[in-house]
From TrEMBL:
Residues 1-26 are annotated as: Disordered. Coiled coil: none annotated. The keyword Transmembrane helix applies. It comes from the Eukaryota. It is a multi-pass membrane protein. It comes from Caenorhabditis brenneri. Residues 629-697, 742-804 form the CBS domain. Its main location: membrane. GO terms for molecular function: chloride channel activity. This is Chloride channel protein.
Length: 810
């Protein structure tokens, strides 16, 4: 075997100085032994994988990872261009300009997120006016006193008009999701968690089954518009959905869009903020946008920052935290300013975002109530675990049997119709009429006469026929006798199952407010039982138990602790209940985690996303890099023919390629024998080099480097196809010097590195690739996120196990 005129020998090749007969025997013997060893290793690996796969099939039905998810690239390519940029006289000014622009972009994120939140709230307000003033009250006023509360045709007309209006709005929301922006469905929080974890959430499209393009759609303008209009229609259409959860997705979309200075959906490039057009900078602005979304939804800037750190951002630092808080403050200020003007109180900045839970007047609680709060936490953990289990099974059913577009649209309309029908049926079945004035805190919009006599209002209607935020406020602050026990039991059960069915259909919808409303119903019921159990004790307010139940229900579903405590305290403008809420959420999380994961994590698993948790799997210390890595590496040499690069780009979908000092044919395996690792280069960078014709006519000549350093940086622009580059036969005969553009010191580990160490490298540094080398720095394999994420921790029979998932190509 020769390479550049040098002779290489091995135990499997003949030495020209030895006897030919003994040399042939030695080579034949070694080859046979190595061939038997290779066959044995392959058989052992296949047997081990088949056992693990069979065991995985027995435990879960969705134990796989999808191959369509790719990692974002957070690592800086410290190539020669990157180092030369620092030597320029204008570099100091560039650093100042980048720092200034970061703060300016964060300011814009806060402003635009506040505008989106105000737009959604105003749309929901006008929809409420149409439903309650024009449809409900007007049509009921046309019915005579004798017809109310009966099955007369007049009342059927009211119900059909109500359900028809809801179905129209839900149809608009569903069409936007199903036919315009599929990624806009749901709350969007699982997608944002994955994006901030380092995963590009793709929309995979195929043309004639031979070309696949992956485009990040999570944070695009089209997604933002569909999300904003869709969530307003979902809430206005009477679904058990909230607009607060989707605001987090909307804020993230604003953060990604504003920071890039261009619109992918409209095809407009303003030429601004080019220095932020990379995954690393975009990640930080998406984190700021998520925090701004929470601040706009709940009037909770501190809670927004904590949410982004607890549930979203995988990587942060002190400067990022300060900029996130700045965006959250500006967002809260903007939405409060607009809504105060819209509600006729211009300049009144004490508005509380989209969700106004009111202020508690009775703030007292005693030490003997602490066990009661802990019991509420246990109930919330159990109900949250039940909710997550049932919703996960329902989502699996949808994936199998409700996959067509028109099937999903029909399900949305069915949910809207049944939600409206159950509301009317409940009001008709439960006689919970209260005299007007019994609840002095009730506003005119909360008083619905419905089937009740003149001078009375329906307490059930005050829960069903108003916006969910107003229903929560009623449960928190209404007097003790405002709602009957039967009303709270039936409403809580109905809303629990309607929320269970609604979350996951093809409309933008959040689970925050529906879970809070459900928990407030059974929490208030708990408070009524406590009051009846201890009639001689004064100061028992069902409202504070409703608050604890709301926190427990939401915490049991999403398993949030620190950020949810801050959000509730800021939304209620009171820190008095901080300790009970914190205790409730801690107990809720402990109890819920005994049964299953949080709702967002469960949906991430169902989507087969290779997300990396906070800690590596237990019992994985003896899983080494040679088992984790992939050996089918495609590498480049430091100087390559353009024709070979074109062939590699055409025949592979790899997003990065290691660069080695030599490539030779291996005498042992079908894969090449790679030399020492020198660096790596991204696929997008190779496209940029080919597009700019950075070629050399002869191997020894030198080409001119591009003037703009960012021309050779990776971004998520949809790359041109090779045919669009217009390379001629002469171009393909030229040489390409990769060394000035490659990252010269990529992360690498030896073959005996343990999985926990590899996991911490990926999790802590946000790596996209990790190369595996032997003791001589020869490339032996590559590890990607999917290779690490396929090892999952499972607990069976009170013992920890590590399951190895398979990579699904579907």
């Amino acid at each position: 075997m020769t390479s550049r005129g040098r002779v290489r020998t091995s135990s499997n090749s003949l030495d020209p100085n030895e006897d030919p007969v003994s040399g042939l025997e030695r080579v034949f013997s070694n080859s046979n032994l190595e061939q038997v060893a290779r066959q044995r290793r392959r058989q052992e690996e296949q047997l081990l994988f088949s056992r693990q796969l069979a065991e995985s099939d027995r435990t879960d039905s969705h134990e796989a990872l999808s191959a369509r998810y790719e990692s974002l690239n957070y690592e800086v390519s410290e190539n020669r261009l990157y180092r030369d940029a620092e030597k320029k006289p204008s570099h100091q000014l560039t650093l100042w300009r980048i720092s200034r622009n970061r703060w300016f972009v964060c300011f814009l994120i806060g402003v635009f997120t506040g505008l989106v939140a105000a737009f959604i709230d105003i749309m929901v307000h006008y929809s409420k006016d149409v439903k309650f003033s024009w449809i409900l009250k007007y049509l009921i006023s046309k019915c005579s006193e004798e017809q109310r509360g009966t099955t007369a045709g007049c009342m059927w007309t009211v119900m059909i008009a109500w359900i028809g209006y809801n179905c129209v709005l839900v149809t608009i929301a569903a069409v936007l999701v199903i036919f315009v922006a599929p990624i806009a469905g749901g709350s969007g929080i699982p997608q944002i968690k994955c994006y901030l974890n380092g995963i590009a959430i793709p929309e995979v499209r195929s043309a004639l089954n031979h070309f696949i393009s992956i485009v990040v759609k999570v944070v695009r303008l089209k997604t933002l518009v569909s999300k904003a209009i869709g969530v307003a229609c979902s809430v206005g259409g009477g679904l058990c959905a909230g607009k607060e959860g989707p605001m987090i997705h909307s804020g993230a979309a604003v953060g990604a869009g504003v920071s890039q200075g261009k619109s992918y959906s409209l095809g407009i490039d303003f030429g601004l903020f080019k220095e932020f057009r990379n995954d690393r900078e975009r990640r930080d602005f998406v984190s700021a946008g998520a925090a701004a979304g929470v601040a706009a939804a709940f009037g909770a800037p501190i809670g927004g920052v904590l949410f982004s750190l607890e549930e979203g951002a995988s990587f942060w630092n002190q400067n990022l935290t300060w900029r996130m808080f700045f965006s959250a403050m500006i967002s809260s200020f903007t939405v409060n300013l607009i809504l105060s003007w819209f509600n006729g109180k211009s300049g009144w900045l004490s508005w509380t975002g989209l969700a106004n839970f009111g202020v508690f007047e009775n703030k007292d609680y005693n030490i003997w109530e602490i066990p009661l709060f802990l019991l509420i936490g246990v109930i919330g953990g159990c109900l949250g675990a039940l909710f997550n289990y049932l919703n996960t099974r329902l989502t699996e059913f949808r994936k199998k049997y409700v996959s067509s577009k028109f099937g999903r649209l029909f399900e949305c309309l069915l949910v809207a119709a049944i939600s409206g029908f159950l509301a009317f049926l409940t009001i008709f079945a439960i006689d919970d009429c209260q005299p007007i004035g019994a609840n002095p805190t009730a506003t005119s919009t909360q008083i619905n006469q419905m089937w009740c006599k003149k001078g009375e209002y329906s307490a059930v209607a005050s829960l069903f026929f108003q916006n969910p935020e107003e229903s929560v406020k009623s449960l928190f602050h209404s007097p003790i006798n405002s709602f009957g026990v039967t009303t709270l039991i039936i409403f809580g059960i109905e809303y629990f199952f309607l929320t269970l069915w609604t979350f996951g259909i093809s409309v933008p919808s959040g689970v925050f407010i529906p879970a809070i409303l459900t928990g407030a119903a059974w929490g208030r019921l708990f408070g009524i039982f406590v009051e009846r159990l201890f009639p001689s004790v004064t100061g028992i307010d069902p409202g504070k138990y409703a608050l604890a139940g709301a926190a427990a229900q939401l915490g049991g579903v999403v398993r949030m602790t620190i950020s949810l405590t801050a959000i509730i305290m800021e939304a209620t403008k009171d820190i008095t209940f901080g300790l009970p809420i914190m205790l409730v959420l801690m107990v809720t999380k402990w109890v819920g985690d005994m049964f299953n994961e949080g709702l967002y994590d469960s949906h991430i698993d169902l989507a087969e996303v290779p997300i990396l948790g906070w800690n590596p799997p237990k019992m994985s210390r003896n899983i080494l890099a040679d088992r984790v890595m992939r050996k089918d590496v495609v590498a480049l040499e430091r100087r390559e023919r353009v024709s070979r690069i074109v062939e590699i780009l055409r025949s592979t979908l790899h997003h990065g390629f290691p660069v080695v000092d030599r490539i030779e044919e291996s005498p042992y395996e079908s894969l090449p024998d790679y030399g020492r690792l020198k660096g790596y280069i991204l696929r997008s960078q190779l496209f940029k080099l080919l597009e700019n014709r950075i070629f050399e006519e002869e191997e020894s000549s030198s080409a001119v480097l591009p003037n703009d350093f960012y021309e050779c940086q990776d971004d998520d622009d949809q790359m041109k196809s090779l045919a669009d580059l217009g390379l001629t036969q002469y171009d393909e005969s030229c040489w390409l010097d990769i060394e000035p553009y490659m990252h010269p010191h990529p992360h690498r580990v030896p073959l005996n590195t343990s999985l926990p160490f590899i996991f911490r490298l990926f999790r802590g540094l946000g790596l996209r690739y990790l190369f595996v080398v032997n003791d001589d720095n020869h490339l032996r394999g590559v590890i990607t996120r999917k290779d690490v994420a396929r090892f999952r921790e499972r607990r069976r029979n009170h013992e920890y196990h590590v399951d190895e998932l398979y990579i699904s190509e579907s």
